[in-house]
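Hi support team,

I'm opening this ticket because the web form for multi-chain structure prediction keeps timing out on my end. I have pasted the exact lines I submitted so you can reproduce it. The total is 888 residues across two entries, so I didn't expect it to be a heavy job. Is there a limit I'm missing, or should I split the entries? Thanks in advance, R.K.
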Amino acid sequence: MRTLVELIAAKRDGEALTAPEIAELVAALVRGDLADYQMAAWLMAVYFRGLDDAETVALTDAMLRSGRVLDLSAVRGIKVDKHSTGGVGDKVSIALAPLVAACGVPVPMVSGRGLGHTGGTLDKLEAIPGFRTQMSADDFARVVGEVGCCMIGQTAEIAPADRRIYALRDVTATVECIPLIVASILSKKLAEGIDALVLDVKVGRGAFMKDLARARALAEALVRVGTRAGKRVTALLTAMEAPLGAAVGNAIETREALDLLAGGGPADLLECTMLLGAEMLVLGGVARGEADARGRLGEAIASGAAARVAERMIAAQGGDARVVADRARLEVAPVQLVVEAPRNGVVERADALAIGLAAVAMGAGRTRADQAVDHAVGITVEAKPGAAVTRGQPLARVYVRARDAAAEAIAGRVAAAFSIGEVCTTHPVLLLGRIDAHSTGAPG
Amino acid sequence: MRTLVELIAAKRDGEALTAPEIAELVAALVRGDLADYQMAAWLMAVYFRGLDDAETVALTDAMLRSGRVLDLSAVRGIKVDKHSTGGVGDKVSIALAPLVAACGVPVPMVSGRGLGHTGGTLDKLEAIPGFRTQMSADDFARVVGEVGCCMIGQTAEIAPADRRIYALRDVTATVECIPLIVASILSKKLAEGIDALVLDVKVGRGAFMKDLARARALAEALVRVGTRAGKRVTALLTAMEAPLGAAVGNAIETREALDLLAGGGPADLLECTMLLGAEMLVLGGVARGEADARGRLGEAIASGAAARVAERMIAAQGGDARVVADRARLEVAPVQLVVEAPRNGVVERADALAIGLAAVAMGAGRTRADQAVDHAVGITVEAKPGAAVTRGQPLARVYVRARDAAAEAIAGRVAAAFSIGEVCTTHPVLLLGRIDAHSTGAPG
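Hello R.K., no limit was hit. The queue was backed up. Here is the completed structure from your submission:
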């Protein structure tokens, strides 16, 4: 075995490392034999030289094995999770997990918190009074088995090497590196004990990946590496130019997700949920294809089965399940500032990044991982790109605790996120691409 | 000003940083605002993207300003130092500094210790009883002024950022990067308060640079950057395939250097010393050209003036100055093992790297910076490449404290460093190239 410094030099020189070498790098980091500055140098070398799929599988495996791998073998069925690379207004998981579970596919979901302009599922769920996102691995497995789904936060036991490496990448300009992103995402997801995974790779102004080519490269790498790691993996590329749905915030996003389970909700949010849910049902082996899956998903909403699963999951996680039927129980800040259209025309742009950052500025998100969020504040987009508006019509509403100078400043930022044109030149499209093991040439 | 992470990302993306940005990176490291892992990532980005000359000047300047810059303005004359990139048997400095000082050029010299297969001037000097290589900056300036030369070790005050960065490079596979090597060498040398610098860039098996093209690139970068930093700089490229001179060790190398000042010593060692000394005398403004300079250097040896300066320097630094006239006072290990020629022929190779590593293995050098060395042990090369030998004639002698299995093993390693051929195909050449500000196109 080469020394740790030789492994840094080998990657620097463009060599592929063996799986035992990558395992040793990660293990040495966890043991303290490889210093953070050595890992940082290796990560920068990886930024320049890349990792091939075999190395990325090895890194994923080493990171997931740095902690506990959840055992869901006692849960019957093909366990399927969904992961989104993060966007603005992306509350899909909250509706999707109960919906897919109601169709017979177990969904063990470990989610994250918001950081920067993107929100996090955990913050949104915690807007439900009493809801606990921390629970033991055993309780998690039990709830998945009994209810069909459970949504928790990453514990200290899951992939600690990933947390350590991600913290280093964040401060060493090595975040934007596809194999490192792939290993980080997959190590956490594979540690959940899943059999299959659907990935929602967001593309656009409000996403981590701003352009389609790079997003496609990430999606393909995720599918190839996940497949090599023995999982069934499909990825969708979906647009993130404007916020998904209407609500951006915590309580108001959870309200909107629960609206979906009651048969309502914005059309684009429903479509995104149906697209991802159909993939999960097919991977989970309960639907023969997209049409069959969409039929089952629609039925689960119409029958109230999905809402019943949501209630059981919320109750099992300590939350007030009455919010599913009575969404007004989710407290939203009492004061509304209306952002009005300055003239007649068509909404050309409702900039997800600008709106996401405005939400962070009002306290709905965080700029540092240790900040608390205000669950009650938020923004709703009342006129999405493509909508015709007349002067004075609401473009957005800003929900604040008091009408003050700070609130007016937020409303100004939200107003600036919109642009109104004469005619809409391009109709927004949600689904930009679909990648599965077959389309990447990965071994199925 | 961009954030520190943005500066890492900028270098990662191939941008040139401004001088204030580089100064801030180094200052932030010293202050503790830039973590070691962030500097390590930046160094690896530099490994891939390089630094242009302006950036290298800025890095040199920032590192030298991280500590004290010695003020030698009270010393009359153009202060000139010599730096070697390191080789085996390279004891040139010990003869050169007094020799050049005897010709009227002040030589303030800050040297290093041996590490790996290369020896260090400080270890060799400390073979002189009582010799102190640590002294205050004020005492150093006083000795340079009174004696004409002084040879000390790097103090904690000199370029602390370089020490910190070098330690990181050593364990992150970022040592072999020309702009970082240039900034490291020049920051320490410029902090000495010199006006001019002669560089001896060693090339070959026993050198840091194994091939001529890379050594030339380093020499050119050193001259360009040193010239841009306002110093008069010349570099020689010299061969390091076999040890320089005969002796490899500490006391025996100091003996050999002092032999030179007494008019003796091996021819290649004398030639290397004369080449470097001539450059120093020309840069120091006391000789009109190489021929004039060589005449002055020869005269300073023949007259005993150089030996008298050596005695005064040793005395001023607490050492026993009698060693200059009576070199047997330098204790050499009592037991000699003779390595004999296995057959008649011509020495083709006396591998400097193998002999240097054998010397380290017997305790003359160190593999870790915190190891002590044994000044008395060593090796002498009795037949250099090109020499005709008959079977049984000594190729080398190994000086050990006792004839034991370890000593026999060292002798075996030394024997293996030699190869004997039928005829010598190439005659060894010492001087491989010369670079000055004119030849690099640097602004004079």
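A quick check on our side: Chain B has three domains: 4-50, 80-156+174-327, 331-421. Let us know if the file doesn't open in your viewer.
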